[in-house]
Write a structure and sequence with these properties.
The chain has a five-stranded mixed beta sheet with strand order 1-2-3-7-9, sandwiched between helices. A four-stranded mixed beta sheet has the order 6-5-4-8. Strands 12-13-14 form a three-stranded antiparallel beta sheet, with no helix packed on it. The protein has one domain. The chain has about 270 residues and is an alpha+beta fold. Helix 2 crosses helix 3. Helix content is about 35%, strand content about 30%. A hairpin with a 2-residue loop joins strand 5 and strand 6.
Length: about 270
Amino acid sequence: MLDFSVILASLLQLWWLLPIVVIIAFFKSPIGKGIVGEGLLNFVINIALDKKKYQLLKNVTLRTNEGTTQIDHIIISQYGIFVIETKNYRGWIFGSEHSKVWTQSIYGKKNTFQNPLHQNYKHVKTLQKLLHLDENQICSVVVFVGESTFKTDMPSNVVYPFGLLKFIKSHQTVLFTSREMWRLMEEIEDAQLAKGFKTNREHVKNFKSKKYTSSPNTKYTRSKSIDSLICPRCGNDLIIRTARRGQNAGNQFYGCKSYPRCKYTRNIEE
């Protein structure tokens, strides 16, 4: 007969393997890969860029005439201000600079999402107005941090994390003195709303009621295809995830990009 006490004792001796297995499984998941992507982006910004010339602000919420707008990353430098919108998508990405929506194709299924360049346009204009800058002093950048592949030619300011470094360093014309650079950073810090649940809740409330502005000459309201890919709880993007356990293991669903902070989910068919 098997001595289960001996087997149990042997398994208990290997308890230390469990955290390692959990960590490996997590970083192989879409959520984990997204975190790795975000970490890579922060590495590029914080490690590869000289802090004397480049300063980073993250998750900046500013007031606008319509309510609020939330900016993922702002890099203030002597060579201009870079306004960065991050996207965590998998699969093939199709899009162009002027189209209203882009398309994600994954496992044969196609989904649309708002053109991130248009989404970042309001961020740029908000900062430009706040800081009284000319158009050539502020730059929009979109960074894809997930396991995605561009299947159409993208503008030079739509990049992967390491492409961000190349794009930023391609700007070598000095636009601000060191003193002006620090003054601009202080103005943004003074204007931004305090980070926390109250600010996020206010931003989501404003987000649900506003219209998108894609360019100075083109305005459009959120279409059903765009609105359906926005989390109704926190206003972040909904991305395709795959259930790893339970009776739905292997099935795909929409989950909030902010997970685990926001745990909203929805079936793809809805």
